[in-house]
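Figure 2 data, in text form.
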Amino acid sequence: MAKKRPQTKVKPQLIDGEVPVVGAREPCPCGSGRRYKACHGRAAAHAATELVQRPFEGLPGECDWVALRELVPAATAGLSLRDGLPEGVPSVTLATVLPMAWPALRRDDGSVLIGLQNDTASGDISRDLADTLLRALEAAPGTPVQGRRAPAEGPRLQDLLNPKGAFEPVVHSGFEFWVPDAENATPEVAASLERANAAAIPTVKLSGVDAAYWCETPDKNHLRWVMPHPEEQLLDALARLHAAGRSSLGEGTRLVGSFRAHGLTVPVWDLPTGVTAEDVEKPAAEFAERLAAALAVQEPLTPDERRARGGLTNRQVTLS
């Protein structure tokens, strides 16, 4: 006669929003009897590996978000929240980098700083930053916010920020914006500030065109310009100008290629060492007009233009 199997009590299952995160091989807290990685951990694992190609799409100033993430050492931009600022939070500011690489910091006065260039735990930078922002808004004044894996179904920046709010980056020569009184900073923050300032490449945002950033390096200067146009259409237009000898920004300058970053294309020009940001303001504005005309052309590329396009794409790299 077969033995009766012992009765086991089934734990009441929790809804997704109540299931805490545990180790991948641990029993799922929902009570299903399966391991977490095979149950409610599936969504978290998927979110951690699936790369969102354009994490800043839909935000005001998408091109500048990409620039501050990948190109600019020291910059800040005020953020406007969809539902307004909570009580006790006078402002929210995006920063390229924060001291000790903190993801966020709530200052003594209650204001919030969010770091953009930190490593993120998932493939969606927007979701990770939104999670950091929400935790910073609730953090005690005077404390940093540590990194963590954002909930798979958590909000994104696009859900939290005002879609009509302006995004106006301010580029700084150093990181003194970290602390209101740099002279009285803690030794750890002071050391981090000194290291960051020593490594920062001089960078200037052009005022006459959108999302174009001049930078100075020991050998030569560069202009890196984040553009919103579809990649294939933009490369065709750049090839038309390059083949016609109209892709430079003046004597001694040269369009050397482009790279991809967060779903957008960033053309790069080499500039002679003596060419400043002010020197390229007018040539960049004139180039923007030539590019707009080239983007409107519908005819197929000529053989010379195809060769020019091949040269540009052969020198293209992907950062993200």
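Caption note: Residues 174 and 197 are 5 Å apart (CA to CA).
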